[in-house]
């Protein structure tokens, strides 16, 4: 599978996650979100950017409590919970936000 | 509001019904196939091998020799039909090939052709068929529509264990190059990084540090989440989902509070940061042993006296029923404790000793029911009494909550229904199957919601918790209804001064 952005084709896995992290760009993230009918707001970007920063340091997406804590700090305490994250990413924050951030899909019993 | 789906969501009826047959209703359902990268680290060929036919029959012959049970299961079925309406996937999909007998027959008809006199010479008379690519495809589809939950086996007069047939089917498929991506990728991560998630040690340490801060903020008590602490008494191995996901993490917080309050020195291990063992799901003894071995290594390395297993259904099955042969003996552990011990057992012991005190009112906003996980219920035990695996979790809930009710009798204890996502099927490429397979549990849950105002369903399995989080909204129920037993325990536990 692949995704086409501005005339360039990027390889993805069966579920649309980028095969190569290095292929990621703002445009790719926006194109992925568009396919899901999701318009990326500033708050979406806060989450996506945090995921990328965390991944860069730890080579894994953050655990849900790490994420909600960080988002609470950045966007206000009322938003530091998974209910809010599910509002932003209805397919599940871990999976949907990881996809837009260009990270691999979390595996395991999650 | 229910989630929109690209398939029909089963309707919950007042009285559970056995559906009329819908031939081929789930013939399209098949999970992603493993790529070479997922296959090879497990010792399987990267793609379909040229001589797949002979290799598959050869592997089947080996399995029939290795597991006398498989041979008996192939021969013993008398087609009595007792299993036909017992499988949640049949009840939820109406596909007749999801009747356990029919799913087993996909292998049985091949077995007859190659391993029985009648099938070799008069195949048509005994319904024997050649192994073709089409048959392999059917195996791949339907052996990934069985969660190896073994409910059907409870009702089989011969005790035929469908799970073992499914495991053999998957093992044969993987050995000719057709493995399942979800399970095999995960096993590869355990080998490479140490857990199903691929959570490296620094990320685990960071996550645990965050949890210490969180509990401190909530309770003003310094509850620790120790990692790789040499000389601890207890090694806790738990599913990595407990570090990562909700509602799992609140269960982990509960374990930590219990150990803290009881003054038990415990530790997690970055080498064995996973209790789950998907080697079981794919029917591969070799991989199951390799995954489990990390736990023995960690226990010896850290010098612990006890191994306690967190809330994970199949991990407990592997620990309770297989560890001793796979990674035993455990003569280096304290003989005064069961080796291994389930975290519910450990907590229950402490409750009985009076080491823990609870404010049940903390859970008064909840009316709780309990979902027995298949592997705990039908493949293990807790405590020293028969049925301890049913009793102890319920006693823990009662210790921590004032309001508890059970679901309908035939859907609990050894008759429990699978959550719909067990056995290596907890993957988004099987979401239709998962939603449909959850129907019987949703039906029973719906009943206690209507009759008793149940607000929460507790479970002791990471797969059950993730599965219900995903499927509850399809049935118009809140994803946060599902919680860990140790969340209830942790929320009600009185945390006193440090000991």
Give a description of the structure.
- The complex is a heterodimer of chains A (110) and B (499).
- Chain A is built from 5 helices and 2 strands; from the N terminus they run E-E-H-H-H-H-H.
- Chain A has 110 residues and is mostly helical.
- Chain A has one domain: Arc Repressor Mutant, subunit A (Orthogonal Bundle), CATH 1.10.10.370.
- In chain A, helix 2 crosses helix 3.
- Chain B folds into 2 domains: 45-178, Fumarate Reductase Iron-sulfur Protein, Chain B, domain 2 (Orthogonal Bundle), CATH 1.10.1060; 187-492, no CATH class.
- Helix content of chain B is 47%, strand content 4%.
- Chain B contains 22 helices and 7 strands.
- Chain B has helices at 36-39, 52-66, 68-76, 88-93, 100-115, 117-121, 133-142, 151-155, 162-175, 181-192, 201-219, 241-244, 248-262, 285-302, 313-327, 343-352, 374-379, 388-400, 431-437, 439-452, 462-471, 485-492; strands at residues 234-237, 266-267, 306-309, 341-342, 368-370, 456-459, 482-484.
- In chain B, helix 18 (388-400) runs parallel beside helix 22 (485-492).
- The chains are: A mainly alpha (110), B mainly alpha (499).
Structure keywords:
heterodimer, A: mainly alpha, Arc Repressor Mutant, subunit A, two-stranded antiparallel sheet, 5 helices, globular, B: 499 residues, Fumarate Reductase Iron-sulfur Protein, Chain B, domain 2, 2 domains, 3-stranded parallel β-sheet, 22 helices
Assembly type of the chains comes to: heterodimer
Q: What is the CATH third-level topology name of chain A?
A: Arc Repressor Mutant, subunit A
Biggest pleated sheet of chain A: 2 strands, antiparallel
Please give the alpha-carbon distance between the first and last residues of chain B: 48 Å
Number of β-strand runs of chain B: 7
% residues in beta strands of chain A:
5-15%
Instruction: Characterize the main sheet of chain B.
Output: 4 strands, parallel
State the order of secondary-structure elements of chain A, H for helix, E for strand.
EEHHHHH
Poorly predicted ranges of chain B (pLDDT <50, ≥5 residues)? none
| Helix amount of chain B | 40-55%
């Amino acid at each position: 599978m692949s995704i086409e952005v501005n005339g360039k084709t990027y390889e993805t896995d069966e579920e649309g996650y980028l095969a190569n992290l290095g292929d990621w760009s703002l445009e790719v993230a926006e194109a992925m979100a568009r396919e899901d009918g999701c318009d990326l707001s500033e708050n979406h970007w806060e989450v996506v950017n945090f995921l990328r920063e965390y991944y860069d340091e730890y080579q894994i997406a953050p655990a849900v409590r790490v994420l909600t804590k960080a988002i609470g700090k950045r966007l206000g305490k009322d938003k530091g919970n998974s209910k809010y994250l599910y509002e932003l990413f209805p397919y599940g924050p871990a999976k949907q936000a990881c996809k837009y951030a260009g990270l691999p899909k979390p595996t395991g019993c999650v | 509001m229910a989630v929109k789906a690209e398939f029909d969501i089963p309707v919950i009826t007042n009285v559970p019904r056995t559906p009329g047959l819908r031939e081929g209703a789930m013939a399209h359902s098949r999970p992603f196939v493993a790529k070479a990268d997922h296959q090879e680290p497990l010792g399987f060929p990267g793609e379909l091998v040229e001589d797949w036919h002979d290799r598959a029959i050869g592997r089947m012959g080996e399995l029939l020799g290795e597991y006398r049970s498989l041979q008996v299961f192939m021969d013993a079925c008398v087609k009595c039909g007792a299993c036909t309406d017992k499988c949640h996937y049949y009840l939820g999909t109406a596909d007749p090939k999801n009747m356990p007998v029919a799913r087993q027959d996909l292998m049985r008809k091949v077995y007859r052709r190659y391993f029985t006199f009648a099938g070799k010479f008069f195949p048509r008379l005994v319904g024997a068929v050649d192994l073709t690519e089409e048959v392999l495809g059917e195996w791949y589809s339907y052996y990934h529509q069985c969660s190896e939950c073994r409910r059907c086996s409870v009702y089989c007069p011969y005790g035929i264990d469908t799970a073992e047939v499914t495991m053999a089917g998957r093992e044969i498929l993987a050995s000719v190059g057709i493995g399942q991506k979800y399970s095999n990728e995960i096993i590869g991560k355990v080998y490479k990084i140490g857990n199903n998630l691929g959570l490296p040690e620094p990320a685990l340490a960071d996550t645990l540090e965050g949890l210490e801060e969180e509990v401190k903020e909530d309770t003003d008590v310094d509850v620790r989440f120790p990692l790789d602490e040499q000389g601890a008494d207890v090694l806790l191995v738990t599913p990595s989902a407990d570090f990562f996901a909700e509602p799992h993490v609140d269960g982990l917080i509960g374990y930590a509070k219990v150990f803290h309050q009881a003054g038990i020195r415990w530790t997690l291990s970055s080498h064995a940061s996973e209790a789950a063992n998907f080697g079981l799901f794919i029917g591969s003894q070799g991989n199951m042993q390799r995954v489990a071995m990390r736990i023995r290594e960690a226990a010896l390395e850290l010098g612990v006296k006890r191994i306690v297993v967190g809330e994970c259904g199949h991990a407990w099955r592997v620990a309770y029923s297989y560890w001793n042969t796979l990674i035993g003996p455990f003569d280096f552990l304290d003989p005064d404790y069961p080796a291994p011990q389930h975290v519910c057992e450990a907590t229950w012991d402490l409750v009985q000793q009076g080491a823990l005190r609870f404010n049940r009112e903390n859970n008064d906003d909840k009316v709780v029911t309990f979902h027995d996980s298949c592997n705990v219920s039908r493949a293990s035990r807790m405590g020293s009494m028969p049925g301890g695996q049913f009793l102890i979790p319920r006693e823990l809930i009662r210790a921590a909550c004032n309001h508890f009710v059970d679901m309908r009798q035939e859907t609990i204890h050894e008759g429990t229904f699978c959550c719909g996502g067990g056995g290596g099927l907890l993957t988004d490429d099987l979401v239709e199957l998962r939603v449909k397979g959850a129907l019987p549990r949703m039906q029973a849950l719906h009943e206690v919601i209507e009759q008793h105002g149940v607000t929460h369903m507790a479970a002791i399995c990471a797969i059950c918790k993730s599965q219900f989080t995903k499927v509850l909204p399809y049935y118009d129920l809140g994803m946060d209804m599902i919680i860990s037993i140790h969340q209830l325990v942790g929320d009600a536990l009185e945390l006193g001064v440090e000991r």
